[in-house]
Design a protein that fits this description.
The complex is a heterodimer of chains A (139) and B (1134). Chain A is built from 3 helices and 5 strands; from the N terminus they run E-E-H-E-E-E-H-H. Chain A is of the alpha+beta class and 139 residues long. The longest helix of chain A is centred in the first third of the chain and has 22 residues. In chain B, strand 3, helix 4 and strand 4 form a beta-alpha-beta unit. Chain B has 1134 residues and is α+β, with helices and mostly antiparallel strands. The N and C termini of chain B lie far apart (155 Å). The chains are: A alpha+beta (139), B alpha+beta (1134).
Chain lengths: 139, 1134
Amino acid sequence: MAVCVAVIAKENYPLYIRSIPTENQLKFHYTVHTSLDVVDEKISAMGKALVDQRELYLGLLYPTEDYKVYGYVTNSKVKFVMVVDSSNTALRDNEIRSMFRKLHNSYTDVMCNPFYNPGDPIQSRAFDNTVTSMMVAAC
Amino acid sequence: MSPTQWDFPVELCCRPMAFVTLTGLDVTYNAVHRAIWDAFCANRRADRVPISFKVLPGDHEYPKCRTKRTSYEWYIPKGILKTGWMNKHLNLVPALVVVFYELDWDEAQWKEKQSECATRVEIVRQSLQGRNTKVAVVLIQKKTPLPPGEDLIASERAAALCNACDLSGKSLFVLPHTDHLVGYIIRLENAFYEHAQTYYYTEIRRIKSHKEFLNKTTHQLLFVRHQFKIAFFSELKQDTQNALKNYRTAYNLVHELRSHETNMLEIKTMAGFINYKICRLCFQHNTPLDAIAQFRKHIDLCKKKIGSAELSFEHAAWMSKQFQAFGDLFDEAIKLGLTAIQTQNPGFYYQQAAYYAQERKHLASLLCHHDLSVAYPSPDPLETPNGVLDFYGQRAWRQGILSFDLSDPEKEKAGILALQLKERDVIHSELIISLLSNAVAQFKKYKCPRMKSHLMVQMGEEYYYAKDYTKALKLLDYVMVDYRSERWWTLLTSILSTALKCAYLMAQLKDYITYSLELLGRASTLKDDQKSRIEKNLIMVLMNESPDPEPECDASTVKLAQRLWADRVSLAGSNMFTIEVQDFVPFVQCKAKFLAPSFHVDNPVELYVYLKTDCPHPIRFSKLCVGFSNQEYNQFCVVEEQYQSSDILQQSAQGTMCLVPGKTRKFTFKFVAKTEDVGKKIEITSVDLILGSETGRCVILNWRGGGGDAASAQEAVQAARSFKRRPMLPDTEVHWDSIIIQASTMIISRVPKVSVQLRHEPPALNNEMYCLMITIQSQEDAVIRDVKLTAGLKPGQDANLTQKTLVTLQGTEICDDSSPALLTDIPIGNLQPGEKLDMPLYIRCSTVGTRVFLVYVSYLIDTSVDGKDIVCRCHRDETVTIETVYPFDVAVKFVSIKQFEHLDRVYTDIPFLLMADILSASPWALTILSSQLQLSSFVTPVDELESHVENVVLQTGESASECFCLHCPPMASPQSGVATGSYIISWKRSSAVDNVPVVKTVVTLPHVMVESIPLHIRADLPSFGRVRESLPVKYHLQNKTNLVQDIEIAVEPSDAFMFSGLKQIRLQILPGTQQEMLYNFYPLMAGYQQLPSLNINVLRFPNFTSHMLKRFLPTHVFVKPQGRRVDDDSIEAA
């Protein structure tokens, strides 16, 4: 199950970041921040590929001893980063993919809100609920 | 650093090589032996066989071989691997002993020598009792040996020697000491290598043979031991594939061992060793993925095998070592050519090693916090009889005890205590930092800037724990920039908090203040109570007092810090700090703006400075000043407020410098710009806000330019993008986001109150003195002084125009080329209010086309701004575009005298006409005053040349024509075009006043071809004839040559005429004379009739046909009808 979910703006500053409350929040911030190295690299590598064939899901960014970090980037270069416990081997790539898709949908809803100014931190109950569902329920 | 318990032994990490000892060499005193030894050991490149050589004396005692047991039935092993075993086979027990002996085949005392050699071999054999070590003999010979088979003595003696030494023929070598020493040595060592391989092969076979005696219950440890030994021997044999296979088996066997708290360390130690070997070989075989997979498996298997809880730090230390060693292997492989990637590089392993090192430190601090009174147990339980352990990974106080029950709990306790006390003395931070810096170096290489920053933060924090605050601050300061620019405020706040602690503990005033400023700012994610505390501390520092200690600081360090702070307070001076706040996010925001992008010099320059604080409490500043690019204005933009230092937090209604959190405060400044600055830019170079007072400590917050900070640019973008309606605010307040910094303004000159009017009659005519009337009228209320006029061609147009445009104020005569294209600064003097001045400007354009003219009037006026008198220079400029056209077109052509036919050539001495047509193209009426023909020497006029167009006025489209009769005198070189001269027209506009000069336009006449002819003919003919009345015609034939001309003339009859005269004649004309022919034509028909044509044939000039001559003759004549008699009479009557 996801232990941390983050939305990162195009300019690489956090729009939304939430982690399970039982562990050190700062650690996850650092994990998400460092994972942007890999995201950047993957995006720049992807830039050469055809635009319409672009896969939004970036896959496993890098494994740490305890966590796996997955990445996803929207067409507008907004990044989603999900940190998953390494011990959770039940979680397959496909499930991660669908979680990201769910997150993307929810993010799109946030963007559709006329009162939301793109680039501001996300403060949306609906989005919160989506994230909560990913962090609690087993997929 | 001395190797710690956790470092791998050297013999494990080295590359095992076959061990061969060389005896009988005296390398100290014998030069030949020395050279041989050097050849063996010097310059061992990769292409030489992997052997480690050692020189030993012939009687060296090799380690004793224990008697091999024949049965394992009652044998119980005490551990997995003896600590000395690897070293023994690497450096002590040779695979081959080589005996060097100086002996030539033709040695005189052969017998003695042979037996001495045999003795030496025997001694070596004795010492190697029970081992399978091979022995070889090398004879050092002075002579070059003959080819094999030729030296009979040699082969005989060789056989004898082998026999005596009990050697096989393959073990006897000859080393001639000649020029090719290295070549011989290489051949020798290849032979040695083969022997060594055979030795290791037999060793492997021997160990394998033990297997069948072992049983799974009691000999589990032996399985591992034997497997390891086989693998190690395989490595010595350089059979790395089999070595890897055997190590893998050994690894699996280790994990099959029954593990318990008591032997956990031993199992892990051995597992770590074997894993290291496997990974090393995998990298060597260029299968890095296998290495990584093996390592992952290893870690997964061992991660949970913590062992004794009281010694759990040992597990962390062991884990850390595993990662570090793998990182080292990985890095080494990269240096040998392996390519790593961003997500799989040694950095991750160093990072993980650092993590476990941190874990170790954490556990050690939990488990080893013994009271100082707890003494180190005596006798030392970690002491062993021979100083080293017998088996890897065992406890010193219970070596070789395999039972899982603790026989002596007291001893166990003492042992654990001893280990814990030892761990307490370990400087963990040093270990952690060195691992982190290894990781940093790797991540730098693999494009992971953020990972690098993260690790540097960890390093900084570790330095902080290690109380090396200076280094900590240096690192933290370095990475703060990155986190700030990426706007990860949570992380930045955490780093700043650590940095603030460091600054506090070192009592670094400036750093302390800087970090406080940012931690109070809007980017900080601290809670309000924390901010409140920091603000209070900041105020205390400003009041020259010590701040309260930061939370979570060690009590002892706080004490030290407090003493430092006390020292700082007592120190006088250097209490002013300038902090550049632009590059971070301080708690005061500043935006400065000029009210307009430009100001007229006679208006005061106004600017606003907006300030806003984000700290929890209102705060007072003592001074605000603005710096400009022209520093003379600085004095006008200062606000200062005196207050008691204790009032700094006191909110006062009147206090202008007291800033309430979240409220935007506006400061208005006004000053009069200097007149020198007209046309220049005034920039705000800095805004200084001063916090604290001279009596306490004083902090100058300095913004470069018009304010803003590290976060403000992005905020402005966000605010601009936002659709959100801002809540209504009273008029006096503004929204912070809506303020846009305007850091510069232009000073422009005063608006002129003077009118400049231009009157003229376009278009200008080419070359005329075109009059542009400039009317300047002052509309100022006061006298304007020093009025200057600049008029003429506007600069910056086509450069050719400057040459072709002349400007003057004198209109009475045509200006010459010395006149400029632009008249600058014509002084005009003073103008009274309302006074008007006319200035005519004459322009002469010598080419047609469009030009732009500039009229620029400048003047001085005294005025006052805000009660200050200034002298302003004002100016007004006007431009006008004027087209220049030709006044008329002149067409000149040559025509024949008789019929006005166009002539393309003229004939010598024969008159012709020059026709000049002047067609007016000017929209204005022109008066042609006169015209004049200036002929060249080639042409002379036939009669007086007088102008026929004098004082003719031409309206648009009208034309005037005149013609002149000319002829060409004979000349030297006929047949060429000659210049005929020029035609000069003097003219002016009809509307022009008298004193306007007359323009003379010169038209160059066309060239004409002049030809001479041999014969000229001219006809005298009345202008008309009448039917049935005689029409006398006389032809004059003139000979133009110096020759007598024979001419045939025939007259062709015509229907319209009867004629009398010579119909056909041949005659001669003398040079220069002329002949006349008279005919009487009698017209028969009325109308325009063709005359009977005259055919003339000049016999001397057959080319000169009558056709050419006909040009000179009339062809037709008008014949009037016969008049009535009555008319005739009336005519006669008249």
